[in-house]
């Protein structure tokens, strides 16, 4: 005879890309794994675990592969809130007296660091342009791994298509050598424009105004980055 299995409650949230997504909270197994991963203090391991947990907890598995980095952040923060609590404690250094104080921020106030940019085009010349990928968690992890080794290689992972007025070319359809040849033909400004477009994708953040417990000064507290919300 086996023990009965508990059913998980289901919640719904609207992710930054605009979809309504149903999800369940973390399980005890998830929380244990998250705590072990946090101890490693390895950003890439933390991000991979966030990706794995989100995939495990969302109801519609067809969304896997289409979620943006901001979607992952939003879902993870909401899953954490429903599992552990909506109020998160952070330590902040007062901008006036420079003393540290601890305060709570509500996950109800999740927002984005900027507007979602739907224009993913970068014009290279009058008749040639590229579209930049809407980066997912795996893309960001890949960029972190390449950043210290070959900054130019990062751009390979950012390009979705190359287009002219007559035709659109899917970048992944070409060989590594063909991609490198294309990149080597670009100007420094072209590379900078492509990178800047990707860097402008918004991130999730919590923003609230709180009084310093020491001097009473108002502080605008802004918390962002997946590490900040990781248990």
Terminal CA distance reads 35 Å
Low-confidence segments, ≥5 residues, pLDDT <50?
A: none
Specify the number of helices. Answer: 7
Mean pLDDT metric = 88
H-E order? EEHHHEEEEEHHEEHHEE
Structural class: alpha+beta
Radius of gyration, CA atoms, in whole angstroms? 21 Å
- The percent range for helix content is 25-40%
Strand % is: 25-35%
Give the strand order, joined by hyphens, for the main sheet.
6-7-8-9
Domains (count)? 2
Broad shape = globular
Number of strands: 11
Explain how this protein is built:
- It is a single chain.
- Helix content is 35%, strand content 25%.
- By secondary structure, the protein is an alpha+beta fold.
- It folds into two domains: 11-112 and 203-229, no CATH class; 121-199, no CATH class.
- The strands form four sheets. The protein has a four-stranded antiparallel beta sheet, with helices on one face. Strands 5-10-11 form a three-stranded antiparallel beta sheet.
- The protein is globular, with a radius of gyration of 21 Å.
- The two termini are 35 Å apart.
Kindly list the characteristics that best describe this protein.
single chain, 2 domains, 231 residues, alpha+beta, 35% helix, globular, four-stranded antiparallel beta sheet
Structure in a nutshell:
Helix content is 35%, strand content 25%. It is of the alpha+beta class and 231 residues long.
């Amino acid at each position: 005879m086996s023990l009965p299995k508990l059913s998980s409650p289901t919640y719904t949230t609207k992710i930054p890309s605009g979809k309504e997504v149903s999800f369940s909270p973390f399980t005890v197994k998830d929380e244990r794994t998250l705590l072990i991963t946090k101890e490693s203090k390895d950003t890439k391991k933390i991000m991979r675990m966030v990706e794995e947990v989100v995939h495990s907890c969302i109801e519609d598995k067809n969304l896997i592969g289409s979620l943006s980095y901001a979607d992952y952040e939003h879902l993870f923060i909401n899953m954490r809130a429903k599992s552990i609590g909506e109020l998160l404690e952070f330590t902040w250094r007062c901008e006036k007296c420079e003393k540290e104080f601890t305060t709570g921020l509500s996950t109800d106030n999740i927002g984005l660091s900027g507007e979602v940019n739907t224009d993913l085009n970068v014009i290279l010349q009058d008749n040639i342009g590229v579209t930049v990928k809407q980066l997912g968690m795996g893309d960001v992890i890949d960029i972190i791994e390449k950043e210290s080794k070959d900054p130019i290689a990062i751009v390979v992972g950012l390009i979705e298509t190359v287009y002219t007025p007559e035709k659109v070319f899917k970048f992944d359809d070409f060989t590594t050598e063909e991609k490198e040849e294309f990149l080597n033909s670009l100007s420094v400004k072209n590379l900078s424009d492509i990178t800047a477009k990707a860097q402008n994708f918004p991130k999730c953040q919590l923003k609230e105004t709180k009084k310093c417990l020491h001097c009473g000064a108002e502080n605008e507290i802004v918390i962002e980055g997946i590490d900040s919300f990781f248990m």
